[in-house]
Design brief:
Structural class: mainly beta
Distance between the termini: 24 Å
Shape: globular
Strand content: over 45%
Radius of gyration: 14 Å
Number of strands: 10
Order of helices and strands: EEEEEHEEEEHE
Number of helices: 2
Helix content: under 10%
Strand order of the largest sheet: 3-4-5-9-8-7-6
């Protein structure tokens, strides 16, 4: 099923049985973002196995602010330039050290929004590249 997100101006193909819950407004420090959870039961499940997306105003909230809000005690991981949906993107990890897991995040700035994706296998926490590869941004509205 192709899921469309009007707030972020993108669509993606969800794995069979997955749905999306949200947006949930999140306030952190001087910024805020919309949080979406993805999975087989995203409204009630949680923890590291739940995939997530965030959407924020790129002029008011940065990738670095998001990373700090996720784990202020985690080691700093490198931010790597990449692409996602044909757009320049940045990839990094969150977790490690005192946190017993790490998860991958990929961020794009599109249409004035900072959009972050952590789409992962609920059991292994490995990134679901097959899902990320289906992301299409509506560049006509940006």
């Amino acid at each position: 099923m192709r899921y469309r997100n009007a707030e972020g101006g993108f669509s993606m193909v969800l794995p069979d049985g997955w749905t999306v819950a949200g947006p949930y407004p999140v306030e952190v420090g001087s910024g805020s973002y919309s949080l979406y959870s993805l999975g087989t039961d995203p409204g009630s499940s949680g923890g590291p196995g739940t995939s997530q997306m965030i959407i924020a105003d790129a002029s008011a909230f940065t990738l670095e602010a998001f990373l700090l809000a996720q784990c202020s005690t985690c080691p700093e991981h490198p931010i790597v330039e990449t692409t996602l949906g044909g757009l320049p993107a940045r990839w990094t990890q969150v977790g490690g050290d005192g946190v017993p897991f790490t998860v991958d995040w990929t961020f794009v700035e599109a249409g004035g929004k900072l959009i972050g994706f952590s789409i992962r296998d609920p059991d292994t926490l490995a990134t679901r590249e097959d899902v990320l590869e289906t992301i299409v941004f509506d560049v006509g509205s940006m």
